[in-house]
Write a structure and sequence with these properties.
Shape: globular
Bound molecules: nicotinamide-adenine-dinucleotide
Number of strands: 14
CATH architecture of the largest domain: 2-Layer Sandwich
Number of helices: 12
Largest sheet: 8 strands, mixed
Low-confidence stretches: 1-5
CATH topology of the largest domain: Dihydrodipicolinate Reductase, domain 2
Strand content: 15-25%
Mean pLDDT: 94
CATH class of the largest domain: Alpha Beta
Helix content: 25-40%
Radius of gyration: 20 Å
Distance between the termini: 60 Å
Order of helices and strands: HEHEHEHEHEHEHEHHHEEEEEEEHH
Strand order of the largest sheet: 8-9-10-7-11-12-13-14
Number of domains: 2
Length: 340
């Protein structure tokens, strides 16, 4: 067997040709993955995204994969609005492709559970883009906590203090409409940090919280602010509490913060991560520079996650950030919405 046929060029279709698709398309170009087509309901958007790559432009995934002349496809990237995740995931799995779906799994918990069920019923890989688990800082937090050198975790707090103005919602109408997005700052922006907190501290056994709107914007009915307290089943049966504050009503985008206090030291993420040990010694971990063209507050690790997903396509195990893992954060924020 020749080198080329052992490592065939992978072929991708990107569905949704909006803002985040640019990050996916740039990552794919950098990895040498062939973009077979860009699909967008809006034909002009599909064309605009596809043309520079010499890819085909389509307005419907199913039609593209059946008689659209796209040819064999390894991975479908789901970059559509939240209410358009489930139908695209189901269409892609029905055509036998692997799937990489943007966060959240879906706009409702019920649809998110259907994504989990569909993924687990099939043999294709389904990855979820929670890219901040690939940040050098958050990986270091996970390793230090797993290593146990700082002792048991006493508690944690996290903040997402960002700005989403009327201009943001004007350019992305679905994001301000609860029936399409499922919510605001929690499901759209803070979901990454909710996921990180439960990944770092352990499974959440109880949630208490509220989501509400502080600053009215015409035509927007989703929350801009939320406060949560979570109980985690920590190591050795000990329960640990975390608190969480998220707002999109700030004037500017501040760095995400996560502070974890342990019996013999602490971890403090504020852009950089500072690890303080029992003797007061400090170690600082920095993330790699932001990806060109993407705001730094999105996190810097889209390319790392996409590259890792492709590198693991032939492995027998499911991708490590799959629908079941992503469901945890969705379950937490859904509980807050149910109480609000
Ligand atoms: N991981 C991250 O950090 C990150 C950052 C930004 C956005 N996102 C996620 O990416 C997804 C898309 O967000 P965006 O900001 O690019 O939105 P967007 O509005 O800029 O683009 C969405 C595109 O999807 C198209 N579309 C809608 N329904 C479709 C369908 N059924 N088939 C084909 N095309 C369809 C729209 O016409 C639009 O062009 C969302 O899930 C969002 O939460 C993730």
């Amino acid at each position: 067997m020749s080198e080329a046929s052992e490592h065939p060029t992978r072929r991708a279709v990107v569905v949704g040709g909006g803002e985040i698709s640019r990050v996916h398309l740039r990552a794919l170009a950098g990895m040498g993955v062939e973009v077979a087509a860009v699909v967008d309901h809006d034909a002009e958007r599909a064309q605009r995204a596809a043309a520079p790559l010499g890819a085909a432009a389509h307005t419907d995934l199913d039609a593209a994969l059946t008689d659209g002349g796209v040819g064999p496809v390894d991975v479908v990237h789901v970059c559509t609005p939240h209410d358009q995740h489930l139908p695209v995931v189901l269409a892609a799995l029905a055509r036998g492709t692997h799937v990489l779906v943007e966060k959240p799994l879906a706009h409702t918990l019920a649809d998110a559970e259907r994504v989990v069920a569909a993924a687990e019923a099939g043999s294709r890989k389904v990855g979820v883009v929670l890219q901040n688990r690939y940040n050098a800082t958050t990986r270091a937090m996970k390793e230090v906590l797993a290593g146990g050198s700082l002792g048991p975790v006493l508690g944690a707090s996290a903040t997402v203090v960002w700005s989403r103005t009327a201009d943001y919602y004007a350019g992305k109408r679905w994001a301000g409409q609860r029936p399409r997005s499922g919510g605001g700052v929690l499901i759209n922006q803070a979901i990454h940090t909710v996921d990180l907190v439960q990944w770092l501290l352990g499974p959440v056994t109880s949630v208490s919280g509220r989501a509400f709107r502080l600053l009215p914007i015409d035509g927007v009915d989703v929350e801009d602010t939320a406060a949560i307290a979570m109980t985690h089943a920590g190591a050795h049966g000990a329960e640990v509490r975390s608190t969480f504050f998220a707002t999109a009503a700030n004037a500017v985008n501040e760095p995400v913060t996560i502070d974890v206090t342990c019996e013999r030291g602490s971890l403090s993420l504020r852009g950089d991560l500072t690890v303080t040990d029992a003797q007061g010694g400090e170690t600082v971990v920095s993330d790699s520079p932001a990806v060109a063209g993407a705001p730094a507050y999105w996190g810097r690790s889209h390319e790392a996650l996409i590259g890792d997903f492709y590198a693991r396509l032939d492995e027998p195990e499911p991708f490590w950030i799959g629908p079941r893992e992503a469901l945890e954060a969705q379950r937490i924020l859904s509980e807050v919405y149910a109480r609000s």
